[in-house]
User: Which sequence fits this backbone?
């Protein structure tokens, strides 16, 4: 309460459910779109409407991190964008290491969405001799056995595993040993990491499953409204 | 209650929150892994433990769809796998149309995870003359203006938009007009669809944001435990 409204705290007051963090990413994207469309302010009900959440949900999610609204005005879009970026840590630059330069790896190297949120793949790794030494979209491809050295030198904290299922665990272990604290796993296999390391698995078939469920259960799905 | 335990209903009794459907996909993957590892049965607490949910959460999620546990046994893994597949609609084959054959599109055409869940990209579309007529991983690349014809002919209900942001909305509209009922959007832009069409947006930077948040807020994140 003594916190001035213009400087919302970076750190939440208590433990935050993962689903809340996920929704912050969604709010951020809608706010960026609102600003692009010329809006300066918004409200919890407007923001909620855009995403299919209630206004109460939006207020409850943001309340984990401070007080962002102004009476009679609502939220100032750019201010809330800046606050969410501070909360998510994306107000700073994050170098990322990527292991595996197949089709998906190449696509990720060219993916524009990372840079927009301050993530940049700065080093790629592979075992194939014909890929090593290559530079793809400006990112150098190193031999896998240089991983520890490069990750430590560039103080890389985030890694992406884009190798076949059979080598995903080995590669993830290498990243962790080198000092990486968060891993996105694109390999279609479950990997196990020490509890201090954060893991997000990307399984693209899961998105399609949400759709097949919705198609076979028309009218029986409600938007996520949980915390 | 009169439902025999061996035939859980396909249709939920009421509206199901999206987060529950998402967790069904996660349960399915852990169950498949358990079966691969030789387990025949599991319990709500074991399944919950593997994913960081409580046993109550697991039971509550499954209760939307029927009664799956056996006293003194727990869940029979293969039976629950079959039930979840029936619920998600992935006990049947889903042909998928993909628009945009860039790096990411090519990666998706080779992505093994789709076939494992009964999704298959059967037709790809692009506007680039040098791609049209090509066959990638056995999938023909058609000119974009054949989209309506091919989607109708093959009764395709699911589509993936893998084009640049500037053409994502136009392409999505075309898919909907052709009869597609669910769309996964990989373009880094928000698209708007009629309420009867289901939309899932994939923004790969969001996964990294979950990690950057976790790295800057060590110990302040709890697993999703909501419904």
Assistant:
């Amino acid at each position: 309460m003594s916190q001035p409204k213009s400087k919302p705290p970076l750190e939440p007051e208590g433990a935050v459910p993962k689903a809340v963090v996920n929704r912050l990413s969604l709010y951020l994207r809608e706010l960026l779109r609102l600003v692009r469309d010329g809006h300066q302010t918004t409200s919890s009900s407007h923001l909620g409407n855009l995403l299919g959440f209630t206004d109460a949900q939006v207020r409850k999610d943001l309340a984990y991190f401070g007080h962002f609204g102004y009476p009679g005005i609502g939220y100032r879009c750019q201010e809330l964008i800046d606050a969410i970026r501070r909360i998510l840590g994306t107000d700073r630059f994050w170098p990322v290491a990527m292991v595996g330069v197949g089709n998906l790896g190449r696509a990720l190297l060219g993916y524009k969405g990372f840079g927009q949120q301050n993530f940049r793949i700065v080093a790629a790794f592979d075992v194939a001799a014909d890929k090593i030494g290559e530079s793809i979209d400006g990112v150098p491809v190193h031999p896998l056995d240089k991983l520890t050295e490069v990750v430590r030198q560039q103080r890389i904290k985030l890694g992406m595993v884009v190798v076949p299922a059979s080598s995903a665990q080995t590669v993830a272990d290498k990243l962790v040993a080198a000092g990486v604290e968060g891993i996105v796993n694109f390999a279609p296999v479950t990997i196990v990491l020490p509890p201090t390391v954060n893991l997000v698995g990307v399984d693209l078939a899961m998105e399609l499953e949400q759709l097949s469920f919705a198609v076979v259960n028309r009218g029986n799905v409600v938007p996520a409204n949980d915390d």
